[in-house]
Amino acid sequence: MKQHLSKSYRLLLTLTIFAVFLTACGTGKTGDSANSDIAKDAQGASTKKVLRVGTSGIYPPFVSKGKDQKLEGYDVDVLNLVGEKLGYEIEWTVAEFSGLFGMMDSGRIDTIANLIAVTDERKEKYDFTDPYAYYSVTLVVKNDRDDIKSMDDLKGKNLGALLGNNMHKYATKWNEEHGNEINIRAYQDVSGTYKEVDMGRIDAFIDSNFVAHSRIKKEGLPLKIFSEKPLYTTENAFPFVKSKENEEFIKQFSKALQELKDSGKLKELSDKWSEIDVTKP
Questions:
Q1: Do residues 148 and 125 touch, judged by C-beta distance below 8 A?
Q2: Which pTM was predicted?
């Protein structure tokens, strides 16, 4: 009797372990990449693919919230069109800009839409799509300020920047190489920064040329771009964590971008959102 119960117990235990194993295999994910977020129907067939995109949601005209609180802008339109071409649904996550790269590193998002500049430092860690926008970097000052014509003129003054972005890093590095005489104030939220310049709380804000043109006009503030000559220029693309899966996806993504460029659609979107053509260097 004891032997019979022991055999039955062992058989039950074996079947239980096997069932758990099958369940685990059926629900496991295959890595943190754009190609891993695939919804399944009742029969297990793919129904849609999802590209998870992170953004600050407050960087017009590239990405911001409209009157209906839905995200809109050049980046949003570009991603929606690329998603249509590749069969991907865009899933947005809004967070502070300074935390977006960490979210991508941890696999919570696949890429970032926030006018991300391609830099040598970033290329060491991430792979990028082909560029979809280009910009020049400038300083925004009050209309009556003629004393700021270069970074040197900011010594002893207050300069605002978006925390963690390429322009903040540029200003910080320049400052370190020139005696740390500029007081750099980093902002998590850029929505009120131009008003900070207008009120004299900061002497200048470092920003891209077309964002500056757009915001000065939209906010109606007595501000101007400090000079016709930019501080520097850069190209912008969508970053992805380095992996074989993402490497193949980036090729497809860049091909879709090129098709949009060749058809004139990118230029059309640029004209929709900016007074400056962002599709050319």
A1: no
A2: 0.73
